[in-house]
Design a protein that fits this description.
This is EAL domain-containing protein. Residues 24-274 form the EAL domain. The protein is an alpha/beta fold. It has helices at 2-13, 15-37, 78-84, 87-102, 117-122, 125-136, 156-168, 184-190, 200-204, 210-225, 238-247, 266-270, 275-281, and strands spanning 40-49, 55-66, 70-72, 110-114, 143-147, 172-178, 195-198, 229-232, 251-252. 49% of the residues lie in helices and 18% in strands. A hairpin with a 3-residue loop joins strand 2 (55-66) and strand 3. It binds ligand C2E and magnesium ion (3 copies). Ligand C2E binds at residues 45, 61-62, 73-75, 78, 91, 94, 114, 116, 146, 176-177, 200, 233-236, 253-255, 260.
């Protein structure tokens, strides 16, 4: 106990930790204000079918429009929002915003929304999704939810019940960042889902690292055996695209096609004639 107290005391007076605690508190307060004022933007990154070159949908990616610091990436505030529980109202806002935006797109296009593990466990996700679909008028079949393995860890039965309820309503479920979490293979057997997203970590080294290539090959054949589709993220080069095509990956997403777009840029992107040529020569 004395040891623990000592540790706590020194932690309390550690200037570096104290500063980062202050930074977190400030971030938390600013996030609260930003939530009240809805100072966020959802951007949309296209997902493209490898065989046809057609856009199949967009992933919704949130940004914080900070008054002084400009656009802040989710990696810099989602962890804090998860710690404080602010992810729940934020995630609700992103879901509703994304569903509304997607109703303006051609009717064959889906929107994929990231759902934090904290949100997946802490609120009635099914009610939330039903509400967002009802209020926007978006058909359930056009909504995909991206969850990570961490959403499935603690409460196996509850998580499976939630996934089944979502899929019964026609909403798709994708397992995000596949291959970077724990117990991936056990989860695949136990949980209902539709898609595996191959993490950028593997895609990045696909053309240069035989081990990365072996992992991607294994993920795609595993997915096929389990009747799941695959989307590779962070595709940046034509070489990566060709390898993914050869391996039988279904969809790709990455800077090769487009960076995340402002909602207003989506129609122009969809109007581009030859996405196949973009896929071979790059968007830049
Ligand atoms: P994620 O869901 O795995 O999203 C993919 C990330 O890779 C995005 O980063 C995207 O901009 C980035 N990316 C896409 N193509 C490329 C590429 O070719 N090269 C590289 N280097 N990066 C690429 P972003 O937007 O910064 O989001 C980071 C993470 O934050 C997301 O990873 C997701 O886990 C989380 N996130 C984003 N939006 C939301 C949200 O609305 N709710 C929740 N809960 N999490 C979100
Ligand atoms: Mg995602
Ligand atoms: Mg991902
Ligand atoms: Mg990722």
């Amino acid at each position: 106990a004395a040891k623990a107290a000592g540790r706590n005391t020194s932690r309390f007076f550690d200037p570096v930790l104290e500063e980062s605690a202050n930074t977190r508190v400030r971030l938390q307060q600013e996030l609260g204000v930003a939530l009240a004022k809805e100072q966020f933007e959802v951007m949309y990154q296209p997902q493209v079918n490898v065989r046809t070159g057609q856009v199949s949908g967009f992933e919704a990616l949130v940004r914080w429009q900070h008054a002084e610091r400009g656009l802040i990436s989710p990696g810099d505030f989602i962890p804090v929002a998860e710690e404080t529980g602010q992810i729940v109202p934020l995630g609700t806002w992103v879901l509703r915003q994304s569903c509304m935006e997607a109703t303006r797109w051609p009717a064959h296009l889906k929107v994929a929304v990231n759902l934090s593990a904290v949100q997946f466990r802490s609120t009635s996700v099914v009610d939330l999704v039903e509400q967002a679909l009802a209020d926007s008028g978006l058909p359930a079949s056009r909504l995909e939810l991206e969850i990570t393995e961490s959403a499935l860890i603690d409460d196996h039965d509850g998580a499976q019940a939630t996934l089944m309820a979502l899929r019964e309503r026609g909403v798709r479920v994708a397992l995000d960042d596949f291959g970077t979490g724990y117990s991936s293979l056990a989860y695949l057997r136990r949980f209902s889902m539709d898609k595996l997203k191959i993490d950028g970590m593997f895609v990045r080294h696909l053309a240069t690292d035989m081990d990365a290539q072996a992992v991607v090959t294994a993920i795609i054949s595993l997915a096929k055996a389990l009747r799941l589709t695959t989307t590779a993220e962070c595709v940046e080069t034509a070489e990566q695209l060709e390898l993914l095509r050869a391996l039988g990956c279904d969809d790709i997403q990455g800077y090769l096609m487009a960076r995340p777009l402002h909602a207003g840029q989506v129609p122009e992107f969809l109007g581009r004639e030859n996405l196949m040529s973009v896929m071979h020569h790059g968007a830049r």
